[in-house]
Amino acid sequence: FSRSTRNTRIERLWVEVGTQFARRWRAFFTRLGRLHGLDRKAPAQLWLLHQLFLPALNEDCKEFQEEWNLHPISGRMSNDQSPADMRFLGQTTEGIYHHDPLDGIHPDSINRYYGVAGARRHRNRHQTGAGIASDEEDDSEPDTDTEPTPEEALENQIKSDLAENIRHAPVKVARHQSPFEDAEEEQDFLELLKEVLETDSLPEDYGILEDEWEEEDYPEIETICPGIRAKELVIVLPRREWFPRAVQWTQALDFMTRYLHDREEDASRASLDSEGPDSDSD
Fold first, then answer.
1. Mean pLDDT of all residues in the chain?
2. pTM of the entire structure?
3. Nearest-angstrom CA–CA distance, 10 and 8
4. How far apart are CA 225 and CA 23, in angstroms?
């Protein structure tokens, strides 16, 4: 593939996302796996990770969004205005739509996929619309399948337009799943977990106790590799911010492990009790 020359803005945005907050979270999760028992292939542990840290991560995303929308954008079209400035001026001059179903969609996308340019033409599946004359039609039977709805046609068109920009298979998202049988049991666990996190107790064998540290002090440096061929990055994780989160993780993981173990033992005892005495014994 040729080198991209048209997506420098989004590439720059991803750099800012990484340097402002995303790389620190990645380094923190790397540390949890390296020192504090996180198994990234365990769906229950990933579910627990979401319960503990997803709100804080989303808050970092929101703060970054607010700051980004206040920075000036260079160029002839933007005239050093910030996204917030352009939004305000647009609302002032054009008005505000209430309950707009297209809210959040870029104007270029609206013009491209919702604009009208003549009567809509319907083609059979074998037709591409690439300049084939009508007298060159073959004698195949017409497509009897139901035509897609306007929404389906729009979705198919967007997929087709974006296909050439996809250079790899979709990234497989790690599976996360609650280990509890129903919402009631899950809620009971979360309420008990809240009480555990309010205590000062530190579990053993999770690398969080002082005598379990690799060095004299708790580390404030973590190394990550942002890509396959990229150089390793050294990320600073200040102890005052990230050590309490590591404590939360070890407390929660230890409690969930013991909770699930006790549940399995209770289920085993209940199963044995339901079977009753062995009537076949001699």
1. 83
2. 0.70
3. 6
4. 10
**Average pLDDT of the residues in 26-35:** 97
pLDDT the model gives residue 141 = 53
- Tokens found for residue 63: 């703060």
Kindly report each contact of residues 195-203 with a partner whose C-beta sits within 8 Å and lies 24 or more positions away, as own/partner.
196/251, 196/252, 196/255, 197/248, 197/251, 197/252, 199/251, 201/251, 202/247, 202/250, 202/251, 203/250, 203/251, 203/253, 203/254
- Among positive and negative, which fits the CA dihedral 221, 222, 226, 230? positive
Q: What is the mean pLDDT of residues 103-129?
A: 63
Q: What is the mean pLDDT of residues 45-51?
A: 97
Greatest pairwise CA separation for the chain in angstroms: 95
Left (φ > 0), alpha (ψ -120 to 50) or beta: where does 95 sit? left
Q: Are 213 and 207 in contact (CB under 8 A)?
A: yes
Among residues 11, 21, 103, the alpha carbon closest in space to that of 63 is found at: 21
pLDDT at 133: 47
